[in-house]
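Lab channel / #folding
Pinned by the channel admin:
"Please post every new chain as: sequence first, then the structure tokens as a reply. Keep commentary short and put observations after the output so the thread stays searchable."

First post following the new format, from NK:
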Amino acid sequence: MTPLIPNLRARRLFLHRHALAEPPRGPASGQALHDLIARIGFVQVDSINTVARAHDMILWSRRQSYRPAALKRLLERDRSLWEHWTHDASILPVALHGVWQHRFRRDAVRLEANWKRWFREGYEAQFDSILNRIARDGPVGTADVGEGEERGKGGWWDWHPSKTALEWLWRTGRLAVTRREGFAKIYDLTERVIPEPHRSPVPAETVTDWACRSALRHLGFGTSGEIAAYWNAVGPEAAKDWCRAALGQGEIVAAEVEGAGGQRHKVFIFAEILEEDPPEPTPRLRILSPFDPALRDRDRAEFLFGFHYRIEVFVPEPKRVYGYYVFPVLEGDRLVGRIDVKAFRDVGSLRVKAFWPEVGVKLTKGRRAKLEGELDRLAVFAGCDRVEFADGWERETLMRSSL
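Reply from TO:
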């Protein structure tokens, strides 16, 4: 008989593996910070800074003593972390560089097929000159290259050729991000950024096993598609083959997981995780980044928590349901609402425009006190000295949910 993972247990397994079950206390610098990132796999980087950038918010949600300077030290001084691509730009343990070298080669083929259609011609002719310039003069950003080239007025599709060349060389491993200035990437030769012990590729035949095995451990349980998508290091067919082989060898088992609405779907799980007794999450309330690893897979979050969430940054304002950049709110093992909040650092104010509870969730006196306490902590993190609430900030539920 196929074992069933009840929804409550599934949520707790998932949150525990994403470091969202324990209280957000403890050290958040040096090796402790590195280990936290290794535990959750990676931290997505995003430019939007309405309160804090995504990578900083993700880490603060788990360790509220965290401050951005600690991450900067690991990236730019200690070199125990590095920045590259998973499903999007992310911060990763540098020990993974050996795996990513196989991805560099794969991505070069994929980029060649698409970038000639997407970008202006001429970027390939810039490869050698950019590499030679960096070798001779040191790191550069996009503002330092492309002298005499026409600057595009559009978005990413209208980059000037030298900027496209820099991104190509980074995506394919010839360059690495040595630091960021503001939010702009500064590139250097990979051998100057990645420590020598991590610059050798791992054996090619181990990549699929590593990618699938580690993804399943980070997720707790998952379909072959979810396993493939976690690192985006192997394709769906390779993940299916791995699951089939691991199942046949008794390394993993097939199970059913229950969704928030009682629906079920089939997943794979390691036997020892199936027997694991996950901790009951702390009842405190947390405000999460929209790019939190626990929410990155929107369909998975909706299945497990009954929480339908979409970023509305690119939705015209009159058509937005909630707002430009709205933060999910986690309480214990439930996603209980979302909040529209923004830091106005010039006047020291963290301003709350609206909070929407999920179906069945009331902003009781106790829950409101927890929310206000979290907002006070968030204000300090965002460099503000007070929280201000807009008139009518307590809203009614807008969408049905399975909660």
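NK: Confidence is low (pLDDT under 50) at residues 151-158.
TO: also worth noting, The longest strand covers residues 334-344.
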